């Protein structure tokens, strides 16, 4: 049949592969032998064909032509991917450079990542999500992306879909690969090298052994090495007016001071509000060199500021090593045993601005009497309670955090044919472990306190002043060592089987059944130094030891009702235990179970047309930490806030002077229940000729009972409504108490996402070669979610920066033009995402020398990049690829978002921060 042969085989490898964004070089010219295989989204082995579910196949050639050096870089370029977590978040967080995949902007927690069809140990500190840095890039043969919910087969976490990395098998020979990538702007060089060796043919020799090793290195990009990231003091124009966006820091070597007063027994009208100013400016009439007036100052908090963002890294430095080895032994035509071992180490160092630390200034000390007391009124002087310097330890260098992540993933089992059944059984041991270390800029408590308590230390003078720390004092005051270790340890056993059943008018029906059991142990321990006060002003990470087991079983039935109509049904039952907390000896949360189902169908009214659709339900259990976590310090808020009126009324003494960041705490909720989803897809594919393919799939996902928490922005905007989310917290450096925000989850959220994935492929052979054009993309129709803490106040992030601190892009598209002429292949790729409305902000109005009267929202323009790659086959053994990413050196557009932590003025999630980059890759097969 035309459809089965041309659409079913060629288009799966070409059109669906091209749906990933790039044309596979030999896809039109080769036809794979017909065989029964298991495709992501089904447990039934069958002949490869265009199925009822939308599966995008990223082939080995597609991977090579993308120029990607990591699987995260590869997947992030697929238009169906939105909502990624990227390595750049390591700047100012303890992420360790983790990268999380997200299909259709539903999030990493709802996107299931598999390795050879089996689960991996999830991130310890991100619940069920898998760090893409765990995947051995050199071993990847292809990637199958199911952009439809699959809880009915895979259980929890598959609401958005499944990404299945298929690794190399039955490989013979020796291959050496190497690559180098060099931006035309300073910094950011990268290089990689790998070796792959395999021997034995499974069919003829009855065995195959495969080993591959790869090493990658990425150099840093400093913020000052790119124009868009060099400062947090950003002049800009909007609607004919001049503004300044000021995200500078009030912590500096020439510190500001905040003074709180004792108002006990005073009437409200006589109470003294907290007061802040810059002592250096008070003495000298101007801010210290390198400082300038803080544009968000008020009469009660008149500060000087420093451009701390200029000292960070835009792209962190990292090294990655991965080793994959696989063995397969065919004992008979009906029994094959296998064992796969994947080892990986990811070493990332992130550098951010020097340490801002609070330094208590003792009343009546020499420094206090010279720099603070003279600038207080007589009434203020009599009632001083505390004076705190907002000091930044600039002389001590940047804060350097090194995170070493080790991964081990081992699977052993067998494939067998027994009494007509195709059976696969496996045992899995998977571990994800990280060690976070401080290697610079963090201060030893005893030594630093001795330094700041000395008579010569003055926090109100700039760097290089008399009394500034000497090199010897700095060197002896910096902490080096681990602050925490954490790991996820997963043990699992699974079995699945499929076979043909009875015959129907359309052919033989098939059934697939399976069951699995998993135990997940997640542990985090703080180092002795982190807990015993060795580090100045440091709060240790929460320690925990959680264990939870789960059991699941499923059945799938494929029914070819008539010649051109097949219906498939699947049902699954899962049971999750409560969370066993080894540290407390208790079980937190209740046993949770869920049943899910899915019905899908494919209809071919003609040999050149395919219609398909599905409907199903899904679920996701809350992470162990979301259920069992205890309330612990979680750093500070992402941005600065004025003390809300409700908190002033409750206890004004806990308010800070002026607009500043507040402490926050995080914890869990034992009453959390599973999240639930309902979803459907409707799509078609047509191939009117052998040179033209077009397809589209409409998808819709609704989620209820979603785990949600009130954002800090919402809480500070309506502190009266969310009063229970605020508590007092004592600064570990000074012991001074202030308000803190509590970030804890609840079951209340709802989301509704809908969109269309589409692709068009045109390929034609000419006398001079073969030309192929592929255009594909995702058009979002809906991206609605309830505001955190509500189940009926809807909002969205469609083409605008939403309350979830993210943007959902209505249109993301990719166009690829490829020309193959003999041994040479040229490919040009255009990547596009539309513009959006930026986050609201109140900048400084240059004309009035005051904050703007009302908030503004920038129109962030659309962002497009052009990539080129040329491939030249020197011989059958030797291949060279060279290319230029971001050919036009397109910079990230200006954004005034406040959720970026240390990265200011741009959004690394949605744009290329390296700029124009030239790369060269070569591969030689012996």
Automatic annotation (TrEMBL):
CDD domains: ligand_gated_channel. It comes from the Bacteria. Residues 52-162 form the TonB-dependent receptor plug domain. This is TonB-dependent receptor. It is found in: Cell outer membrane. It is a multi-pass membrane protein. It comes from Massilia violaceinigra. Residues 375-887 form the TonB-dependent receptor-like beta-barrel domain. Keywords: Cell outer membrane, Membrane, Receptor, Signal, TonB box, Transmembrane, Transmembrane beta strand, Transport. InterPro entries: Beta-barrel_TonB (IPR000531), Beta-barrel_TonB_sf (IPR036942), Plug_dom (IPR012910), Plug_dom_sf (IPR037066), TonB-dep_rcpt-like (IPR039426). Residues 1-29 form the signal peptide. It holds the Pfam family Plug. PROSITE patterns: TONB_DEPENDENT_REC_3 (PS52016). Coiled coil: none annotated. Belongs to the TonB-dependent receptor family. The keyword GTP-binding does not apply.
């Amino acid at each position: 049949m035309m459809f089965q042969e041309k659409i079913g085989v060629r288009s799966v490898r070409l059109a669906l592969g091209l749906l990933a964004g790039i044309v596979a070089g030999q896809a039109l010219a080769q036809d794979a032998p017909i065989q029964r295989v298991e495709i992501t989204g089904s447990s039934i082995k069958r002949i490869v064909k265009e199925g009822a579910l939308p599966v995008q196949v990223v082939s080995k050639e597609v991977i090579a032509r993308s120029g990607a050096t990591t699987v995260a870089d590869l997947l992030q370029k697929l238009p169906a991917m939105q909502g990624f977590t990227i390595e750049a978040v390591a700047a100012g967080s303890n992420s360790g450079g983790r990268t999380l995949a997200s299909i259709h902007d539903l999030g990493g927690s709802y996107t299931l990542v598999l390795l050879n069809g089996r689960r991996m140990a999830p991130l310890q500190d991100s619940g069920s999500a898998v760090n893409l840095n765990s995947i051995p890039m050199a071993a990847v043969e292809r990637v199958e992306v199911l952009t439809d919910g699959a809880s009915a087969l895979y259980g929890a976490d598959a609401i958005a879909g499944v990404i299945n990395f298929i690794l190399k098998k039955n490989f013979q020979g020796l291959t050496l690969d190497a690559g180098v990538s060099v931006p035309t702007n300073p910094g950011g060089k990268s290089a990689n090298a790998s070796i792959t060796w395999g021997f034995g043919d499974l069919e003829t020799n009855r065995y195959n052994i495969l080993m591959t090793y790869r090493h990658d290195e990425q150099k840093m990009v400093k913020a000052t090495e790119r124009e868009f990231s060099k400062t947090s003091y950003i002049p800009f124009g909007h609607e004919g007016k001049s503004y300044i966006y000021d995200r500078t820091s009030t912590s500096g070597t020439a510190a500001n001071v905040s003074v709180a007063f004792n108002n006990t027994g005073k009437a409200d009208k006589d109470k003294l509000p907290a007061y802040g100013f810059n002592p250096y400016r008070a003495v000298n009439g101007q801010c210290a060199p390198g400082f300038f007036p803080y544009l968000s100052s008020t009469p009660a908090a008149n500060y000087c500021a420093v451009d701390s963002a200029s000292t960070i890294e835009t792209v962190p430095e990292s090294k990655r090593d991965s080793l994959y080895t696989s063995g397969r032994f065919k004992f008979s035509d009906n029994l094959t045993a296998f064992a796969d071992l994947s080892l990986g180490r990811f070493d990332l160092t992130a550098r951010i601005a020097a340490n801002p630390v609070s330094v208590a200034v003792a009343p009546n000390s020499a420094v206090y009497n010279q720099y603070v007391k003279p600038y207080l009124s007589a009434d203020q002087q009599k009632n001083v309670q505390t004076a705190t310097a907002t000091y930044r330890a600039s002389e001590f260098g940047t804060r350097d955090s090194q995170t070493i992540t080790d991964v081990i993933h081992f699977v052993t089992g067998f494939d067998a044919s027994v009494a007509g059944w195709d059976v696969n059984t496996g045992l899995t041991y998977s571990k994800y472990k990280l060690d976070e270390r401080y290697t610079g800029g963090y201060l030893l408590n005893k030594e630093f306190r001795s330094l700041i308590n000395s008579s010569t230390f003055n926090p109100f003078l700039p760097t290089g002043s008399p009394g500034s720390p000497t090199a010897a004092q700095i060197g002896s005051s910096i902490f080096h060592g681990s602050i925490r270790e954490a790991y996820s340890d997963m043990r699992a056993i699974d079995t699945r089987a499929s076979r043909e059943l009875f015959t129907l008018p359309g052919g033989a029906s098939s059934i697939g059944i399976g069951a699995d059991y998993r135990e997940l142990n997640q542990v985090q321990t703080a180092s002795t130094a982190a807990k015993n006060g060795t580090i100045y002003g440091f709060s240790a990470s929460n320690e925990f030891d959680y264990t939870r087991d789960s059991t699941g079983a499923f059945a799938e039935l494929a029914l070819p009702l008539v010649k051109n109509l097949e219906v498939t049904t699947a049902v699954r039952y899962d049971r999750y235990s409560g969370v066993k907390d080894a540290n407390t000896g208790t079980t937190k949360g209740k046993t949770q179970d869920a049943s899910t189902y899915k019905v899908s169908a494919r209809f071919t009214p003609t040999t050149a047309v395919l219609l398909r659709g599905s409907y199903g339900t899904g679920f996701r259990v809350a992470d162990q930490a979301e259920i069992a976590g205890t309330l612990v310090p979680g750093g500070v808020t992402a941005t600065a806030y004025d003390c809300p009126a409700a908190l002033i009324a409750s206890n004004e003494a806990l308010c800070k002077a002026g607009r500043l960041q507040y402490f926050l705490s995080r914890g869990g909720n034992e009453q959390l229940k599973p999240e639930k989803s309902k979803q459907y897809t409707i799509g078609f594919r047509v191939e009117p000729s052998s040179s033209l393919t077009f397809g589209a799939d409409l998808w819709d996902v609704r989620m209820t009972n979603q785990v949600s928490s009130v954002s800090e922005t919402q809480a500070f905007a309506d502190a009266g409504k969310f009063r229970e989310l605020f508590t007092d917290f004592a600064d570990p450096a000074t012991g001074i108490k202030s308000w803190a925000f509590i970030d804890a989850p609840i079951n209340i959220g709802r989301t509704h996402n809908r969109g269309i994935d589409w692709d068009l492929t045109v390929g034609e052979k000419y006398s001079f070669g073969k030309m192929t054009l592929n255009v594909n993309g995702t058009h979002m129709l809906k991206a609605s979610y309830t505001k955190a803490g509500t189940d009926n106040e809807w909002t969205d992030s469609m083409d605008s920066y939403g309350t979830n601190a993210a943007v959902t892009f209505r249109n993301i598209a990719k166009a690829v033009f490829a020309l193959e002429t003999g041994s040479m292949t040229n490919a040009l790729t255009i990547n596009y995402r539309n513009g959006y409305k930026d986050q609201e902000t109140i900048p400084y109005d240059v004309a009035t020398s005051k904050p703007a009267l009302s908030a503004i929202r920038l129109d962030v323009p659309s962002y497009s990049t052009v990539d080129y790659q040329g491939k030249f086959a020197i011989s059958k053994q030797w291949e060279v690829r060279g290319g230029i990413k971001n050919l036009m050196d397109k910079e990230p557009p200006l954004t005034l978002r406040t959720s970026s932590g240390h990265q200011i003025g741009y959004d690394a999630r949605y744009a290329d921060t390296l700029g124009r980059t030239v790369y060269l890759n070569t591969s030689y097969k012996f």
